[in-house]
Design brief:
With about 250 residues, the chain is α+β, with helices and mostly antiparallel strands. It contains six helices and seven strands, in the order H-H-E-H-E-E-H-E-E-H-H-E-E. The protein is about 50% helix and about 20% strand. A hairpin with a 2-residue loop joins strand 4 and strand 5.
């Protein structure tokens, strides 16, 4: 029964990945055809075509999210040492133009050299989803901060914003698929984050940012220091038994 259940789950994930992948091509072709139609159409038709284009963009985002979820759920984790501070600074630099365009401050804070044990490329994908969500939610004039520091035996990474935040009920459901507080959102970003974090042996949680907003806290496994080898036990010297001298 366990083998049948495992095969069923694997089959469902594979089917979701295949369907998502196959849908990307016709959606791209449909978008191209609408672009061509809008070039020779009147103003009213162009407006309707623009609305259809927006729906195609939304469907494409949903398909990409489903494909990412399927890949995340079928991932086989082979942890490697990841320089967390380097990844944090790199992803922040990649998203800073988006933040500047929306008049949102994006800052990072890392406590020196921080190393975690994760699947290669997973932390980049996690931060991309979190930063995309935060920058989408925070209004102009707001800010987003990414921080990383050692915590116990692991590494704690947090992404905090001062946006509208979530209610306690929304926070409880946020890591489920299709749970979105943004109109038109797919509700898959946090589901992907949760799956990637937990598959690496970590944990993810949501909380309120002091003063308002949402904070995502990730507890990731840290780099395990090598244990010093114990010195080999000294071999006792062999002492040959000697006969006791004859007593007088």
């Amino acid at each position: 029964m366990a083998a049948r259940l495992e095969a069923l789950v694997h089959g469902n994930r594979a089917m979701m990945a295949d369907v998502s992948h196959q849908l990307r091509t016709p959606l791209a072709a449909l978008r191209l055809r609408l672009d061509l139609l809008s070039q020779d159409s009147d103003e009213a038709t162009v407006s309707e075509l623009a609305g259809a284009q927006d729906e195609i963009v939304r469907l494409s985002r949903l398909v990409d999210g489903l494909l990412a979820v399927a890949r995340a759920e079928s991932v086989v984790v082979e942890p490697v040492d990841i320089s967390v501070n380097e990844v944090v600074h790199d992803r922040a630099a990649a998203w800073r133009p988006v933040a500047e365009e929306r008049d949102v401050g994006l800052a990072t804070r890392c406590a020196g050299q921080v190393v975690a044990r994760l699947g290669e490329g997973h932390l980049e994908q996690i931060l991309d989803n979190l930063l995309a969500n935060a920058l989408e939610a925070v209004p102009a004039g707001g800010h987003v901060r990414v921080s990383a520091a050692p915590s116990g035996q692991g590494i704690r990474v947090s992404v905090a914003d001062n946006g509208p935040g979530m209610s306690s009920q929304q926070q409880e459901a946020a890591f489920r698929r299709f749970a979105s507080t943004t109109p038109g959102g797919a509700g898959l970003g946090l589901a992907i984050v949760h799956r990637l974090v937990t598959s690496n042996g970590g944990a993810a949680a949501l909380s309120d940012t002091p003063g308002g907003g949402l904070t995502v806290v990730l507890d990731l496994p840290g780099h395990a220091p090598e244990r010093p080898r114990r010195p080999a036990a000294a071999t006792p010297e062999r002492v040959d038994s000697l006969p006791f001298p004859n007593r007088p």
